[in-house]
Amino acid sequence: MTQFKFFYRNGCHLCEDMYQLIYPYESSHNIMIEMVNIDNDSTLKNKYGLLIPVLTDTDENEICHYFFDKVRFEQVLND
After folding, report:
1. Domains in the chain, start-ordered, CATH in brackets?
2. According to the model, what pLDDT value does residue 13 have?
3. Alpha-carbon span 13 to 20, nearest angstrom
4. Strand ranges inside the chain, DSSP E
5. pLDDT > 70: percent of the chain
6. What is the pTM of this model?
7. Distances (CA, A) of 60 to 11, 28, 48, 75
C-alpha cells in the first residue's frame, strides 16, 4: 500500500479543496493518506505554515502544495 502525508490546518479552504481531490484515490488506488494537522506541532507549523496544504510521500518529499497537482501525484503513484 502506498502511503502519503497530507499536512493541513483546520478551517483552511485550500486544504479542504485539495483533500476532496485526493480522497477518492484512497479506495480507487489502495493508498493511505496520513492526515497531519500542522497546528499540533510547532516544528511543522514553522516548516509548512505558509505552504499548506502540502502533500508528501512518507519521507516528506513534497509532491504539491497550495493546489493538487494531479499529474505529479499520478507520476508518484506509478513509480
Report:
1. 2-78 (3.40.30.10)
2. 96
3. 11
4. 2-8, 31-37, 54-57, 62-65
5. 99
6. 0.92
7. 23, 23, 11, 16
